[in-house]
Design a protein that fits this description.
single chain; 110 residues; Arc Repressor Mutant, subunit A; alpha+beta; 4 helices
Length: 110
């Protein structure tokens, strides 16, 4: 199965979950997603998702100066983002349970 399509479908949820754990700048969010097991996530996809979630009002941002290069724009989750995370998390949980039942019925271990 092509994992890139699966990642695209849940990238908003994954980014919200990572940022809910701790604020982060673009590459930090990419690194944390990959460390969590989403090795196929693309840098550009995450950066675009952060910008889109920010524009949608789900994230706040602030700039932190850096002595080692350009300033970093950090993203943090806000109340609207937490609401989205909870809603999308429930949707994902329902979907995952449905798939587990379908696979168990087909004799496939998950």
């Amino acid at each position: 199965m092509d994992n890139t399509q699966l990642v695209k479908g849940v990238l908003d949820l994954a980014v919200l979950a990572v940022v809910a754990d701790a604020d982060g700048y673009g590459y930090d969010v990419v690194r944390r997603l990959r460390t969590a097991g989403l090795e196929d996530v693309g840098d550009a996809s995450v950066y675009g998702t952060l910008r889109r979630l920010y524009a949608a009002g789900a994230l706040s941002s602030y700039v932190v100066p850096s002595d080692e290069g350009p300033h970093r724009k950090y993203y943090g989750i806000n109340a609207q983002g937490r609401s989205m995370l909870e809603s999308q998390g429930r949707t994902w949980g329902d979907f995952a349970r449905t798939m587990e039942k379908l696979l168990a019925g087909a004799g496939v271990a998950s």
